[in-house]
Predict the structure.
Amino acid sequence: MSTQRAQFGTRLGVIATTVGSAVGLGNIWRFPYEAGAHGGGAFLLIYIGFIFLIGVPVICAEFIMGRGTRRNIFGAFRTLHSNRCWAWVGYMGILASILILSFYSVVAGWTIEYLVEAVSGSLDTAGNGAELHNRFDHFVSGWRPVMWTLAFLAVNAVILFRGVRGGIEKASNILMPVLFVILIIFCINSLLLPKAGEGLWFMFHPDFSKVDSGTLIGALGQAFFSLSLGLGTLMTYSSYFSDSTPLVKSAVTTASLDTVVAILAGIIIFPAVFTYGCEPAAGPKLVFEVLPAIFHQMPGGTLWAILFFFLLFLASLTSTISMSEICIAFFCEQTGMSRRNATLLNTGIAMGLGTLCALSFGPMSNFTIAGLTVFNLFDYLSSNILLPLGGMLISIFVGWIVDRRLVRSQLAGTGNLPHLLLRAITFCLRYVAPAGILLVFLSGLNII
Ligand code: PHE
């Protein structure tokens, strides 16, 4: 077991890496399609409520455990409590990280395909709904998605070999601000589209008659997925924080920036969805069907497309690096495996499962379990069940079981913590987060 752990260098590095983990395909690909499938405005409002009432306190809980113990998720539970049962939350996190890495890499692979097409000039086609739909369907039903999934995982592994500081921190520091600026430019472009008004109305006008248990589960799952929460990513990252990193502030900054990026993505996508006659509830394909049409209509569209897909590819990498880190830290620290072997193992498993996910849109589209393709099953199981369940257990653990003094000292760090803030966070961890998550689960089972 190693006692010498790496640390993130600067305060900016801390924010950039946590935001780098949070911001990714979850915001730009998953948020619009979830919002589209669950009625738009009402989903957004519920989502924001979950982010700040449940997400922020649970981020704080992960930070407290991570920096308080300087261990991986499994080791953190073992250090803080002698009962072995709690370590199961760690196993759940590791399982979720592998499931997510598998299907996430498929979508990251799609971004590589679109990047390559943009570079070769073949992405530039005028679009109406049906053409855009056929174009994507044609691509995903073949074998190319498998190739790109494997290529993406290979790149991910190469970066992981280089360790915590070298790869992750540098890439995130440069990448995030650039991505942000590009998104704002795209938003302005979308706001000028003919049916921008309809798109914005869909996204911002809450129609509560559309809210059902699916909306609640979808919004909760999306909140956890987008914040990289409930599986130990932020716990693992915070184990590399320095003692002076302010935890509450970092949690609020991460959640706010992540939410802003998701909203920007919505402002980019929905005006285009209505302008080009696509279906908001199209599911995982939505964004990839709509984007080529957006680029086609932009002046200099091909160059924008290249820039966008390149950045999206990098944003996906900073997220997959963070989810792989959970597994790697676990294997290295709990079993004494070398970092290299742990990375190879993690990548190997994800390559196998990722191939099945990539084929879910084509050759394996008829293979379903409980009515879901492998891709959808992994997504549903991890985002909507494992992450919120993990978050609930982490908040109960930190709210009720962990020594109060550790909670206070970690939240205060080297500065002062207002008493009211401590009480508010503790209250959320003890009552609001566990009860909120439980109610959403119960509504999903049609019990309430
Ligand atoms: N939050 C990431 C995104 O929005 C995905 C992710 C989930 C990363 C879980 C790490 C762990 O793209």
Q: What stands out?
A: The chain has a mean pLDDT of 90.
